[in-house]
Specification:
Strand order of the largest sheet: 1-2-6-3-7-17
CATH superfamily of the largest domain: Zn peptidases
Largest sheet: 6 strands, mixed
Order of helices and strands: HHEEEEEHEEEEEHEEHEEEHEHEEEH
Protein name: M20/M25/M40 family metallo-hydrolase
CATH architecture of the largest domain: 3-Layer(aba) Sandwich
Keywords: Hydrolase, Metal-binding, Zinc
Pfam families: M20_dimer (PF07687), Peptidase_M20 (PF01546)
Number of helices: 8
Strand content: 25-35%
Cofactor: Zn(2+)
CATH topology of the largest domain: Aminopeptidase
Structural class: alpha+beta
CATH class of the largest domain: Alpha Beta
Shape: elongated
Distance between the termini: 17 Å
């Protein structure tokens, strides 16, 4: 392993648990401005003192401004490190960091404050080699977990030489370190039904049953589910709300579905299959979240080969179904690599955790990829 990687991976790992404890100690669910501001203050305090601190408008209204930590250098290359500070778990269920053997348990540990800790460590490591970059930026957004509008930062960083995103890392089936270079496109489909209420015993046929209409819409969505098909489409109805009383024909309701595929066009086809009305109740479909896919396998292959040589062990190109902000940058920054964070599990769940033993090895992977991105 390259000496620079060995040295700085050890430094990052030695302080990672303390840094993670500070970030996880703050409850910062999407949309909570005070929580986001506290997490941003901690992240800025953990950043290199040489980094220029800027706040950028968040892509989602009424969220705290995003944080940009810009590290200027004297070279020519520009590299973007990427992460998010918002979490899914609300304040009432938030759990601060708890060490239990190799498990670092806590809300947001693996998604993705553990990755933020490693990204900050990589930026600090780059301090001693300013001639290799014109700018080594770290962007931490506050709305990744529930953004329904357009992503606002793509144009600002278009043309950068590399984008490294620190979502959770993983091993492949043989136990090799893996990074993510391919992700599906994702869409969240909402279907609203508009019917007419009536007494379900005395005059049921005078009503227009919104629940039955939504059930038909759910079946129409599920009929497109084809994970083994050419678009690898998953179409899964996930939440249904309809009706207010046991003896009234439901007049309204709402269905939510999760859609993932290799292309957004496959997702649009599912939306187009929703009928206009069922049994007199009208259906109104809308896409709430629309995330592009990512396929950087070809463009990142030389980069990962150089990084593997510097690391002294293979770094495997892998794919993942979940959405990530890396997908937004992949179209304008061909060398986009994701999954550089620590390994763990339980994202968005009570058992969310990071594996402490993965911190030094994943720090080394991230450093190797950053080094390869800055030097040929």
């Amino acid at each position: 392993m390259d000496d620079w990687i060995t040295q700085h991976a050890d430094v990052i790992a030695r302080r990672a648990v303390r840094d993670l404890e500070a970030l996880v100690g703050v409850s910062s669910p999407s949309g909570d401005v005070p929580g986001a501001e506290e997490a941003i203050a901690i992240a800025a305090a953990l950043a290199p003192t040489e980094a220029e601190v800027a706040r950028l408008p968040c892509s989602t209204p009424r969220h705290a401004p995003d944080l940009l930590l810009r590290l200027p250098g004297t070279g020519t290359r520009r590299i973007l490190l990427l992460g998010h500070l918002d979490t899914v778990i609300g304040h009432v269920h938030h759990r601060p960091l708890e060490v239990a053997g190799d498990r670092l348990n806590g809300s947001g540990t693996v998604d993705m404050k553990g990755g933020v800790v490693l990204a900050l460590g990589v930026q600090r490591a780059l301090l001693d080699r300013p001639a290799d970059y014109a700018s080594a930026d770290l962007l931490l957004v506050c709305d990744e977990e529930w953004r329904t509008g357009d992503f606002g930062h793509t144009g600002r960083f278009a043309g950068y030489d590399a984008c490294l995103c620190f979502e959770a890392g993983e091993h492949d089936a043989e136990g090799h370190d893996a990074v993510i270079v391919r992700r599906k496109a994702a869409g969240t489909l909402r279907v609203r039904a508009h019917g007419r209420s009536a007494h379900s015993g005395a005059s049921p046929d005078d009503g227009r049953n919104a629940l039955l209409a939504l059930a038909a819409a759910a079946q129409a969505v599920a009929a497109h589910h084809a994970p083994a098909g050419p678009e690898r489409l998953t179409a899964v109805p996930t939440v249904l709300h309809s009706g207010d009383a046991f003896n009234v024909v439901p007049a309204a309701g709402e269905l939510t579905c999760d859609l993932r595929a290799d292309s957004l066009e496959a997702i649009d086809a599912v939306v187009g299959a929703i009928p206009d009305e069922v049994g007199g109740a009208t259906l109104e479909p809308a896409i709430l979240r629309r995330w592009p896919g990512m396929d950087a396998r070809e463009s990142t292959a030389p980069l990962l080969a150089r990084a593997s040589a510097r690391l002294g062990r293979p770094i495997i190109a892998a794919e993942r179904g979940g959405a990530s902000d890396a997908s937004h940058f992949a179209a304008t920054i061909p060398q986009t690599v994701d999954g550089l964070g620590p390994r763990g599990g339980g994202a968005h769940a009570p058992h969310e955790h990071v594996l402490a033993s993965s911190l030094p090895e994943r720090a080394a992977v991230a450093l190797a990829v950053a080094d390869a991105a800055l030097t040929d």
